[in-house]
């Protein structure tokens, strides 16, 4: 099977440093992404994901690259039964998500005149990936919410 990926670019009226802070500071991340990470952000360090009242701990959830404020990369989350229950995923969807190999999310942050270019590249999917389908819908929402938060002071409201 061929490997597939998802890439999405958005321009934000904020400095690269401010975008970096939003991606790594739990007090900001929780506002636009509805989750946080516990980590020291050192390359190779594990990341605990806190989402929907569930703490997802896995030794394979790690920071891959930390080049402040230019590039951040980490392995994607582990899909546990507790996560599936908390977010309302069906048993079938959760099984499909959990059966896939771990993917990688990479943020590239580049100055672009008076704004900053923010690109997410999510890689490591096989054809027909359920995780790829989820991030294809999810990343534009997350990054639009980040943009709104940094430009207006208010993240997007969902649900």
Automatic annotation (TrEMBL):
Domain Activator of Hsp90 ATPase homologue 1/2-like C-terminal residues, every copy: 14-151
InterPro entries reported in the protein's UniProt record: ASHA1/2-like_C, START-like_dom_sf
Signal peptide start-end: none
Gene3D superfamilies to which the protein is assigned, alphabetical: 3.30.530.20
Family recorded in the similarity comment: Belongs to the AHA1 family.
Protein name: Uncharacterized conserved protein YndB, AHSA1/START domain
Lineage: Bacteria, Bacillati, Actinomycetota, Actinomycetes, Micrococcales
